[in-house]
Amino acid sequence: MNRRSAIKQLFVIAGGMMIATSCSNDRKKASIELHNVHFSAEDEQLLKQLVEAIIPETDSPGAANLNLHLFVMKMVDDCHSPEDQAQFVKSLRDAKKIKTKNTEDTLAYLRSLPQEDVFFKILKRRTIQGYLNSEYVMKNKLIYELVPGRYDGAVKVNA
Amino acid sequence: MANLNIDSEKNRTYDAIVIGSGISGGWSAKELCERGLKTLVLERGRDVQHIKDYPTTNMYPWEFEHRNEIPYKIQQENPIVNRCYAFHEDAAHFFVKDQEHPYIQEKPFDWIRGYQVGGKSLLWARQTQRWSDFDFEGPARDGFAVDWPIRYADLKPWYDHVERFAGIAGNKDGLPELPDGEFLPGYPLNVVEKYFKQTIESKYPGRKVISARCAHVSKPEPIHLQQGRTQCQNRKLCQRGCPFGGYFSSNASTLPWAAKTGNMTLRPDSVVHSILYDEQQGKAVGVKVIDRNTKEETDFYARLIFVNAAAINTNLILLNSTSNRFPNGLGNDSDTLGKYVAFHNYSARIHAEYEGLLDFKTDGRNPAGGGYIPRFRNLHKQETDFLRGYAAGFSAWRSSGSDQSGLGADLKESLLHPKLGNWGVGSHMMGETIPKASNYVALDTTQKDDWGIPLLKIAVDYDDNDAKMKKDYLDTLEEMFTEAGFTNIRRNEGWQAPGLDIHEMGGVRMGNNPKTSMLNKWNQMHAVPNVFVTDGACMTSTSTQNPSLTYMAFSARSVDYAVKELKKGNI
């Protein structure tokens, strides 16, 4: 039941624009219900900026438009160890030192992080996962077939 | 009051009781109901109705809250079931969670369970290879366990029978070690699987690579349409339950068929505590049931009892069915009940790449999963320092991926344009294990579950034979992969506990001699003639082939015999 309602909640958010965007106060809670990690509205905005830098809007929607910051929050909240969660939140707060909201500064900051940085790895991995498994990509770019209805074991690759 | 009790008892009396609604119980139910017997089917878990109770079946990947990943906390709380390959967000509701039904591991054993109507038939890997006399003659030839009281010829007509109804896709390969059946069209090997087949079959006489046979309706016959099932749509989301009835499950096939006769009463939430034995009649008279939710106790009565609770739980019920006559478990004159438990050795895998045939790829999905290498080791005679042998899965896939090293627009561009890579190839072993008295299940003397049933202790382990066989599998497959020009060969010797193969068998074995076995050649208890066991518990040895099809055949054959005996007044 809980899961169902949570899925629904995610879709409502994905469908429209968030109500909470105007809140920049750190004491305000994030716009989705979480159980383990405390993300503030400000954290949420920062994550939105970060995921959009990783997968920006081009001629097709980017990560922010696809609400991947909410997906990253959801996954950090439910699918990572308490240690990883603590590290993620700590590093996210460190990321507040990114000078501006522009993409160049954000990317520069991400590139300054060690490749093995826990925060960076989780953030990037979950952003990519959310993107490739998003309704937009699976319906418009890399089509997912629920019902293929066929199997061919030897198809010539078009040169 | 007395009359009321008699009425009540009458209302709780059936011609037959089937304990369990999984793959073998569904078959027992169907066959009993078709022969006109009023049949009570007891299922310890909740009801799961075909299609209606498959909540995730039509969900897209993005509709899963965690994109099919099991959350951290649930993984931590369920180390056992979390090791099962099919335990993901889309099917987690069909698996027993570790905490719900604890058991005692005297040695590590991953007991994977599905407590609901349909049991694990919703979740199985659907591989259906017949057993042959190379399997049934194994114990006698190689001197282990006891001789099977049947041979392939006894089972053949019943394999035919269950295959026609269940729908088995396969090719007629003409192999005595893997007899052909009543097949629907087989699924094709892909171009690399075919290449491997040709390479192996020309270099190694006696070794074969065939298309795996599986319980999928590749092309429906009228009998499948009559069940309300239709052609498999290659979704390969089977573990969610299939809205097309494309693969065989009790829920899609045998149970609705049994219900249609009007003879079946299906009672979910009914935990069987024990089988009731009447010393004067020398027969079982019924079963004691505890309601899963209310814990209320009710006895049900019948002239015939089929035990299909799944291998280990069948052992548990029989061990817990004690009486003056059978203080150590129902029918246990031989003192073999709970012993000689065996499984399949799935503890090794091997992966590699193939850099040839790069002008081909595959399209769609193959429900059969790819190829199957029937057992070739020690087949005609003993030739190694270990007994028996292994079958192996073999499959090839053309992977595509993208460079994920960048960030920003470059990364996005790369993600949206994945490139075909080399072929990936892989194999896993399915080894026969030798049943031994020291591999057993038993009741704990102090701890009980929430239904007042003793907890089960499981003591099942690998032995030296398994270790030697595993090494041979890895060496042999590595050599075959090398011969085929595969590269980047990776041997995976990762240990896994027995049980995770989900092919646990034995404990209530068949045999000719009542002093050394529990069941006769009809799966009938030597000592209690109206009790039949036709699930994995009955298996005298394990073969290398997936066992479910054989449980189905045993169930149908055994019901046919039992009903004839009942009508003759012999039971």
Notes on the structure:
The complex is a heterodimer of chains A (159) and B (571). Chain A is mainly alpha-helical and 159 residues long. Chain A has one domain. Helix content of chain A is 53%, strand content 4%. Chain A is built from seven helices and one strand, in the order αααααααβ. Chain A is globular, with a radius of gyration of 17 Å. Chain A starts with a helix and ends with a strand. The N terminus of chain A is likely disordered. Chain B is α/β, with parallel strands linked by helices and 571 residues long. Chain B has a domain of 152 residues. In chain B, 24% of the residues lie in helices and 22% in strands. Chain B is built from 13 helices and 22 strands. In chain B, strands 1, 2, 7, 8, 9, 10 and 22 form a seven-stranded mixed beta sheet that branches. In chain B, strands 6, 12, 13, 15, 16, 17 and 20 form a seven-stranded antiparallel beta sheet that branches. In chain B, α2 packs parallel to α9 and α6 packs across α13. Chain B is globular, with a radius of gyration of 24 Å. In chain B, 53% of the residues are buried. The chains are: A mainly alpha (159), B alpha/beta (571). At the A-B interface, α1, α3, α5, α6 and α7 of A face α7, β14 and α11 of B.
Descriptors for this entry?
heterodimer; A: mainly alpha; disordered N terminus; B: seven-stranded mixed β-sheet; seven-stranded antiparallel β-sheet; 13 helices; 22% strand; globular
Topology overview:
The complex is a heterodimer of chains A (159) and B (571).
Chain A: H1 2-15, H2 41-54, H3 68-79, H4 82-94, H5 103-112, H6 118-132, H7 135-140, E1 151-156
Chain B: H1 2-11, E1 13-19, H2 23-34, E2 39-42, H3 72-77, E3 104-105, H4 133-136, H5 138-142, H6 152-166, E4 168-169, E5 183-184, H7 191-203, E6 210-211, H8 222-226, H9 250-260, E7 264-267, E8 270-278, E9 283-291, E10 297-307, H10 311-319, E11 339-342, E12 344-345, E13 349-354, E14 360-364, E15 371-373, E16 390-401, H11 409-416, E17 419-432, E18 440-448, E19 454-459, H12 464-483, E20 487-492, E21 505-507, E22 531-533, H13 548-568
Parallel strand pairs in B: 1-2, 1-10, 2-7, 3-19, 4-5, 10-22
Antiparallel strand pairs in B: 6-15, 8-9, 9-10, 11-21, 12-17, 13-17, 13-20, 15-16, 16-17, 18-19
